[in-house]
Amino acid sequence: MSSLEDKYNKLKKDYESYQRVAEETMQKQSSKIIELDEKVNMLSLIMKISEYINKFLGSDQLVFTINDIMIGILGVTYSSVYLLKDDKLELMVSNLDKTKHHFMIKEFNENQDKLEVLLINSQDDISRDENMQIHSCICMPIYLNDVILGAIVVEHNMYNYLTEEHIRLLKALSNHLAICLENNKLYNQTKRSSERDFLTMLYNRNYFFSVINKKISDGERNFSIIMIDVDDFKKCNDTYGHQFGDLVLKNICEIISNNIRKDDIIARYGGEEIIIYMNNVKNMESVYNRMESIRKDIENTVVNFKGISYKITISIGIAVVKDDDKNLHQIIERADMNLYKAKNLGKNVVVY
Predict the structure, then answer these.
(1) Which of 24, 116, 130, 272 is catalytic?
(2) Where are the transmembrane segments (predicted)?
(3) Is residue 120 part of a domain?
């Protein structure tokens, strides 16, 4: 009888032990499933955010979008986005009036030490501003291949609001943001290259025509087209070489660019020819006066290169839109004819 009781107790003990192990295993598996679900949900969220941000590739709104997303998904009170410019983190967007309390950014800019992830929770206000309260903060650097691209600082007015879970999310998100920012940089570089003339950095002919034709199709009629040609440029190239000729052309383009208005558009038309679109033209006289001023500036310019000194002059032809002009080609043709007249008048003159 005692032997049967012992066997029963042993079986009962083994069963209870198995039951405990089974329950512990099930709890562990359940925790792993929950953790996996959280990771999947986080990954899904990050992928959706990345897809949304990529819609703003090449747009000035990209950093504003990133900042809005930080506020939206984290529920923080404040968010600030910094990007690296000239080896310093520069504030690009923030919904804060002042960011003087971002000491970690200031220290990085002064010492150039590696910027680390930082979590601050303080019962004391860390904003140093009597008009607001900040008690919780995360600084998340954005790195790509160990090269810093920027940083995000998110803050809340509630103590202990931001936690390690927020850091995990921001770390994962910062990797995708780094790729988005790098893609945006490459996109803008490619876009600029496709629009600009490599030597002079003026707009190229294709870009000029596409923009001005769009303006005309949108009803723009109050503008003038100016054609400019460097006098005796071939002789300059043949006498002093193409390097010197390139320097002459760059000098001329810089002078012209510095003397036109922000909304005017200047492009390299071809060779040593430059074309300008001037909008909101009051009258022919105002265009002439501006071009005459540019002509005089260039006339008084001396280009020095390897012991060579050379005085430059330009000829200019102007055309203002007429009511019967049907396309851009007609306006350019008139400006070109006036440029031809300027050449025949002895060069270094403005003709309209």
Answers:
(1) 272
(2) 62-84
(3) yes
- The residue that leads in pLDDT, 17 or 85, is 85
pLDDT at 36: 47
**Is there a domain that residue 47 lies in?**
no
Which pTM value belongs to this model?
0.63
Three-state SS string across the chain, please? CHHHHHHHHHHHHHHHHHHHHHHHHHHHHHHHHHHHHHHHHHHHHHHHHHHHHHCCCCCCCHHHHHHHHHHHHHCCCEEEEEEEECCEEEEEEECCCCCCCCHHHHHHHHHCCCCCCEEEECCCCCCCCCCCCCCEEEEEEEEECCEEEEEEEEEECCCCCCCHHHHHHHHHHHHHHHHHHHHHHHHHHHHHHHHECCCCCCECHHHHHHHHHHHHHCCCCCEEEEEEEECCHHHHHHHHCHHHHHHHHHHHHHHHHHCCCCCCEEEEEECCEEEEEEECCCCHHHHHHHHHHHHHHHHCCEEEECCEEEECCEEEEEEECCCCCCCHHHHHHHHHHHHHHHHHCCCCCEEC
pLDDT value of residue 49: 79
- Asked if 335 and 270 sit in the same domain, the reply is yes
Together in a domain, 221 and 337: yes
- pLDDT above 90 coverage of the chain, percent: 65
With 70 as the cut, is the pLDDT of residue 105 above it? yes
Q: What CATH number corresponds to the domain at position 331? A: 3.30.70.270
